[in-house]
From TrEMBL:
<dbReference type="InterPro" id="IPR036390">
    <property type="entry name" value="WH_DNA-bd_sf"/>
</dbReference>
<protein>
    <recommendedName>
        <fullName>MarR family transcriptional regulator</fullName>
    </recommendedName>
</protein>
Amino acid sequence: MENHDPRFLAVLRDAAEQLLAMHDTAPRVVRYVASMQKWLITQAIIALHFERKHDEARAPLTAGSLIEFFAQEQRFSKNTLTAHLAEMRAYGLLVPQDSRDKRIKPLQLSPYAETLVGQWLESHLAALDRLDGGRRVSELAEDPRRLACMHPLAVRALVFDPAWAEPPASVDLFVRTESGSNILHELICRLPMDTGRVDQPICLGPLHASEISTRHTLSRGHVQRIFSRARAEGLLLWSLPANQGDLSVSPSLLLDYARWQSVKFRAIAQAHRQSQQMIARTEPG
């Protein structure tokens, strides 16, 4: 999986389109993974849910288990984690789970949220299948248990890997902001179909801040500030003054993004292999 391989860039373009399509279907939900901080916390919550679903001996999803998840690194404050958990519950993404112990209040993903996570993982498995001719998507469809097994393996690998959790500066400029990941996806999905070697700026055509702000319910000023910072860093270039005309993206941003994304795809590929082994051990005979 070479990050400069045109096939991988094509896969990333298609993946960005699918992620944006998911946003259009469920914008409120997707916003919980549309910045790096939210991605890390939300995916940790989902991983705890699936670990419990895969193995009832594991601790249930509670504020305490979420705090414990990040205890070694202390990346986020307890208040940040509990507030995120409470907000996801308020929007119906998390629902109460029955418990015999009335002292704890375990939660679980709603069926709707679980379906969306399955779509997210399936889109990444489909991308891997395109790269190597595998049949991971078919295996997931044949045995839904793989979702609960595979997702936590990938997330635990990614959340504590600086190569993923601490993106390159060019990528971080986007993903540290509210809905910044969606803005980055808007750029990537506009890569020309025939994009080859990335050794010079790639023209994406015209793209205005108003298009992005309308689609993602963001203020136009927020998008313009991100664009201005990216232009000042030489990451985005416009053919006319005042961010007008055709927009081009720099090779450094594209290659940094591809390198960063390759970390995620490798983790998911490894999680798939591990889940195969784990499920095989539970098969009779």
